[in-house]
Amino acid sequence: MSSVTSADENRHRDSVHSVLSRHSIDERRRKPISDPKSLVITPLMLRTDPYDYDSIDLRLGSYFLIPQSPPAPFLDPTEENSSRHSHLKVHKPLGSYLVIPAHQTVLGATLEFIKLPHDVSGQILTKSSVARTFLLIETAPWVHPLYRGCLTLEIANVSNTPQVLYPGFQIGQLILIANDRPADETQPLSGAYVGPIEPESPVLKHPRDILREIGVDRYRSPHSPDWQSTGR
Amino acid sequence: MDAAPFPTDLGLIGIPNSQGRALFLNCLLAHEIGEYVYAKRDIEAILATNATAALERHIGEKFTGAPLILQSRMTNTVAQCAKEIFCDLFAVRLIGPCYSFAYIELFDLPNLLSKDGTLIVGENAKPPILMYRAYPSHPFRVKAQADLLKAEGWWDLIKDLDSRQCEVLRVMLELNTDAFIEAENRAGGESTPFVKALIDVLPEVKNQVGNVTNGIDPRLHEYSILWKPIAEYLSNGIVPSTLNVAGTDGTLREVHATPITLLNASYRFYLEGVEKLMSRIKDQDLSSAQSRATWMRRIENWTAKALEDVTLLRSSGHE
Lengths: 232, 319
Known about the structure:
The structure holds two protein chains of two kinds.
Chain A: H1 7-15, H2 22-29, E1 40-42, E2 56-59, E3 63-67, E4 87-91, E5 98-100, E6 105-115, E7 120-126, H3 128-131, E8 135-136, E9 142-143, E10 148-157, E11 163-165, E12 170-178, H4 207-213, E13 218-221, E14 224-229
Antiparallel strand pairs in A: 1-6, 2-12, 3-4, 5-11, 6-10, 7-9, 7-12, 8-10, 13-14
Chain B: H1 17-20, H2 29-40, H3 43-59, H4 61-64, H5 68-95, H6 97-106, E1 129-131, H7 138-152, H8 154-158, H9 164-174, E2 180-182, H10 193-212, H11 220-235, E3 243-246, E4 252-255, H12 259-272, H13 274-278, H14 289-315
Parallel strand pairs in B: 1-2
Antiparallel strand pairs in B: 3-4
Helix pairs in contact in B: 2-5, 3-5, 3-10, 5-6, 5-7, 5-10, 6-7, 6-9, 7-9, 11-12, 12-14
């Protein structure tokens, strides 16, 4: 086995899963968007030193989706638009606030719109000061390369007291991680979540289609006691 | 407890519910701001004087010999039409061609054109464009806007826009004002004294618009530099509130466009760029009206977000 590695392999090996530092983040933000390595974070409110050493603080946006009891007794992906009908959209402009009761959840979004480079993944974490009030902001924290949009936050108040949310406050931090191989930026973007600027209801696949893909012939839903074919 | 008196200098603007969620159609609000300025600056008195003089020229003794109440009504007819033109031109001066695009869109004026882009109604076609005395016709108003866009220098920056909105402006620019005849006099031949009087008042309308908008920078230069970068951001599905733009020395610098430039550049992309955007997205049917509407709504959302962002950035001290 040869001990000689090419310069490319060395570069990849060096960059595998490395967390981007302040310098790299800033460098990528200054690239033209035609460059697949470019990073967009807008608006970046702090004029001087907007980054931590290895992360960027993200702020809470002003739109929310508050879960409601749906007309049906459950949220069921076999019902068209059931997820969309199960939320109430609320706008709380900067300077205003939203109260989350104890043990309740709400969908929010970051104030910042983000576009990730083709060779970088992201992870959003609750800011430690926020987490210590038992407020969690994210249960699906991973952000794929080339993602663009405001990040939807699944905010949960797991404490025993109501809590007040102020749009514009720093609520999370984004960690950027270099991948060992870049995604192909020439491929079309997946349309379901391209460019959201506010929290959006989930796009739920029908269980029939998912089960058919994995070879299941039939399924039942709460709406009918009978078995139904997946069409396989 | 007595309520506080309603402020005398506060205007209320009502918009149709159907218009509320469509960002670009809200460009029409600039017209309503013009209505407020028109009343506040008492421009009606000036234009009424001009309207009276114009009617004397075109109707002669039939006007001067008429009872005063009839004279007043005739003057008011011309002055009311002049007011609408004033508010349109005020809006164009205030926010640029995005007002005209919204106007053409709201009133579905691309239907003035045949499929090949020629004017269906006009001086060389039948029927000519009718003007009703109650209100200036849409083509007449668009022509006045197009003339101002040309005089201001906007036309050179938008004339290559690939959209029927722009074609309507082009056709109206080329149209002679003789094409407008009064519907009330259609059977009687060529007599169009009210239209002629209104056309006579237009220079004073433009003069008054110039007076009240003196000092407003139309942001032409900024638009000429930033409309392409803004389109590039939108075609990549990115909110264009922070732009990396190459300077004259080739180095990139961070730029935040003004709201006027954002509106005009984004509206341009909305009109001509949706197919380019959809080609970047997986499984999109360009011939599907529903898909196109989805992505046009996205462009409006990104523009609205950019407008909020740049306003916030400026208020926090960013240039």
